[in-house]
Amino acid sequence: MVYFVGAGPGAADLITVRGRALLERADRIIYAGSLVNPALLDYARAGCDIYNSAVMTLAEVVEKIEEGHAAGMDIVRLHTGDPCLYGAIREQMDALRDKGIPYEICPGVSSFCGAAAALEAEYTLPGLTQSVIITRAEGRTAVPQREQLSALAGHGASMVLFLSAALTRQVREQLLAGGAYREDTPCAIVYKATWQEEKTVRGTLGRLPEMAEENGIDKTALILVGEFLEGEYELSRLYAPDFTTAFRKGTAP
Ligand code: SAH
Questions:
Q1: Once rounded to an integer, what is the mean pLDDT over residues 22-36?
Q2: Contact 193, 117 (CB under 8 A)
Q3: Which residue in 116, 149, 178, 233 has the fewest CB atoms around it within 10 Å?
Q4: CA of 88 to the centre of ligand 1 (A)
């Protein structure tokens, strides 16, 4: 069986219990070496075959899975964070489906959750925003025209940018062009969230490029933008004394 496993954002104990059990019994592990914490490989049993996909092509990864499957192995394909975001798992699953090789997915803690934890932030605050936009700046991978940052920036929602730490000038320019964020909109960069080297930098959108440059950050980082980082919010309705739910009867206002 093949398991696509989310490794979590970095800290080795932030993999799920299920993910760890799958690593412990795997016969072969193919891990995304550019981002997965190598400490996770300590969970592998002695004698497990280990491959680093950072130096492999899609065809080579699929070949190693196919070969292992034919030999009756349990195979873990280990991806950083949760594999559903920028994980390139769809192409692997489609290739396996074409070959009749069964697989399952074990989710993980995405780095955007690790970054919020590092900042002690909540993305969805009543009275401020109830939406999170997860996106990226356009680099070597194209972003569809209708999803250009300037278009997404018209909402003023909480925003998380993956894969964009080297593109901060472009990010600032396009987010400001959207109209809803300003130069003084709160902004943060979280480098290697939950790793030992974790670094958080807080500032404003207007200073985003300087925040990255002054701290030497150009990769393995998330950019977070929005009033959720600092703005005034309202208390939740859910825990308000006068709010009745299926579980709790509210008092008269
Ligand atoms: N599937 C992953 C994302 C993979 S794309 C997830 O759910 O987190 C790789 C990008 O994710 C990096 O360029 C960076 O923007 C972000 N990233 C991954 N791990 C990170 C971490 N620990 N801290 C900050 N950003 C991280």
A1: 97
A2: yes
A3: 233
A4: 13
